[in-house]
Design brief:
The chain is an alpha+beta fold. The chain has helices at residues 2-18, 22-41, 87-94, 129-137, and strands at residues 76-78, 84-85, 105-106, 109-111. The longest helix has 20 residues, at 22-41.
Length: 142
C-alpha cells in the first residue's frame, strides 16, 4: 500500500510539472496537496516523506517592486501595508544593509508572501510552510 501511495504522489507531482497552463498547475497543485493531506492523515505516508511542491500565488498578483519594477525576486512589504519593495529598494529606504541571517524582516519591512487565493498577503506569523519555501527560493536581488 505504501509504495502505491508514494507512486500516486510522484505521478501527481509530475503532472504539476508538466501542466501546460498556470491554471492547470494551480488546480493540480491543490489536488496534490489534498491527496498528501489525506494520505498523511490515513497514516499511509509520514510528513517527512512528503516532498515539497511549488507554492503558487494567485495569478492576478502583480508581484514586483513598486519603486524599481524588479520582479521574480524576494519582495518585502511594510508591516500592515502592501507597498512592495525589493532588497535594493528596502536598503535605500531604511539606509541599512540586509542581514543574510534575518532576511524575513528588515526593521518594519516583512517578507511579502501573497496568499494562494489572491486575497492579500500572509501575516508575518501565519505564512504556511509552502509559502515560506517559495519565498526563500526566490533570488534576493536581480
Amino acid at each position: 500500500m505504501e509504495k502505491l501511495d508514494q507512486l500516486k504522489v510522484s505521478v501527481a507531482l509530475r503532472n504539476v510539472e508538466d501542466a501546460a497552463s498556470r491554471d492547470d498547475k494551480v488546480s493540480l497543485a491543490r489536488q496534490l496537496r489534498d491527496l498528501r493531506l489525506l494520505m498523511t492523515e490515513a497514516g499511509a505516508i509520514y510528513p517527512s516523506m512528503i516532498c515539497p511542491i511549488d507554492y503558487l500565488p494567485h495569478k492576478s498578483w502583480n508581484y514586483k517592486c513598486n519603486d524599481c519594477g524588479a520582479n521574480e525576486c524576494k519582495l518585502w512589504r511594510e508591516y500592515q501595508a502592501c507597498n512592495l519593495l525589493c532588497a535594493n529598494c528596502v536598503e535605500k529606504r531604511t539606509k541599512r544593509k540586509l542581514d543574510p541571517e534575518r532576511l524575513h524582516s528588515i526593521e518594519w519591512w516583512i517578507a511579502a508572501i501573497p496568499d494562494e487565493e489572491g486575497n492579500g498577503y500572509w501575516g508575518y506569523t501565519s505564512v504556511p510552510e509552502a509559502g515560506v519555501r517559495w519565498w526563500n527560493n526566490l533570488p534576493t536581488t536581480l
